[in-house]
Amino acid sequence: MNMDNPRNVIPLSAGKRIVVKVGSGVLTKDNRLNIEIINGITDQICALYDKGIQVILVSSGAMAAGVTKLGLPCRPSETPKRQAVSAIGQADLIKEWEKALEHCGRKVAQVLLTRGDLCDRVRYLNARNTINTLLEWNVLPIINENDTVAVKSLQFGDNDNLGAMITLLLGADLMINLTDIGGLYDKDPRVHEDAQLLSQVASMGKNIEAMAGKIAGPLGTGGMGSKITAAKKLTAAGIPMIIASGLTPNILINIFNNDYIGTYFVPQKKKLNSRKNWIGLTLQAKGKITIDAGAQKAVLNQGKSLLPSGITRVEDYFNIGDPVEFLNEDKKLLGMGLVNYNAADILKIMGCKTSQIKARLGFRSYDEVIHRDNLVITADPE
């Protein structure tokens, strides 16, 4: 597809690393795994490997495979049953990927994670080291959520979010999100014939979220809304994401030739380092802090740490070192940081100068509530 404003994608000759997430709507047909699609995607992955591109695959479809294997009419609603169905289907899912890759001599490795694995710094680094070793061995990592043990507080929620976190974990250069819709439209193309595709998204405003909606497929957990959430995380970290149709032949190859129909999400120019990715875009917030306009300007525009003088509100209970979101007085989320004081102590010192901390607490461990090194801005630049 020739475009007036070509999108900046990674050429095959660059030898980069990508994450490919494939949704249930692509991998299933008539409530069964679509073997033809699996074979087509693996052919493309093999071709990318041959060109020096490292691929990490985030694969949905375990629930769909389990529903089919058990002959169920739909996904169960109870969590234990859903987890059991996924466990049954996961075996068939990996088996089909493994069979499809045999012809090109590639091996696969199953990697099952919970969000708790990535929120713990030691386990986060262990997961990264393991997957990096698999890539060095030219083994294709196939990643999915460990549904069997994941409780609600430790769930990724959907594989779009998981794919984004894996992209951040491994420092990948691009995430390709393959769906059955094939891009972000101004309205649902399955309902409205006049729906228009957005070929490029340069900023992630509320209008983009409104377009996405919350429609999910019958066997998947994430709709277009979850894909926009994933894109917001990645672009904030300086990493692009593409939504394209996984049902289109040779879509992965075409993307690297910049000859595809889909939506390209433009990344911010500054790329976050690995630790800041972990703090700002992987950890789950334990609480919230509201800051005034002066503190917002200092943190967002001047690169300053967050001091107690700019804090106006504290929500929830959290301890020293916990990840905490900070918002402005209009309740707009600005970023995330690791706090130097617990919630009770911040309530005592908020609004005061650093010289007054000791008088209010009886000690003064730090001048900053969140040091700049432990603070990540996630809001779009204004």
The CATH superfamily title of the largest domain? Acetylglutamate kinase-like
Q: How far is the N terminus from the C terminus?
A: 33 Å
Low-confidence stretches: 1-5, 214-220
Q: State the strand order across the main sheet.
A: 5-6-4-1-7-11-12-10
Total domain units: 2
The major β-sheet equals: 8 strands, mixed
What is the class of the largest domain in the CATH system? Alpha Beta
Class by helix and strand content?
alpha/beta
State the share of residues found in helices, binned by percent: 25-40%
What's the Cα radius of gyration?
A: 22 Å
How would you state the average pLDDT, rounded?
A: 87
Total beta-strand segments: 17
Q: Give the name of the CATH architecture of the largest domain.
A: 3-Layer(aba) Sandwich
Overall geometry: elongated
* Named CATH topology of the largest domain: Carbamate kinase
Number of helices: 14
DSSP strand content: 15-25%
3D structure, described in words:
The protein contains 14 helices and 17 strands. A hairpin with a 2-residue loop joins strand 2 and strand 3. The strands form 4 sheets. Strands 5-6-4-1-7-11-12-10 form an 8-stranded mixed β-sheet, sandwiched between helices. A 5-stranded mixed β-sheet has the order 14-13-15-16-17, sandwiched between helices. A two-stranded antiparallel ribbon has the order 2-3. The protein folds into 2 domains: 12-276, Acetylglutamate kinase-like (Carbamate kinase); 285-377, Archaeosine Trna-guanine Transglycosylase, Chain: A, domain 4 (Roll), CATH 2.30.130.10. With 382 residues, the chain is an alpha/beta fold. Helix 2 packs across helix 4 (79-101), helix 7 packs parallel to helix 9 and helix 8 packs antiparallel against helix 9 (224-236).
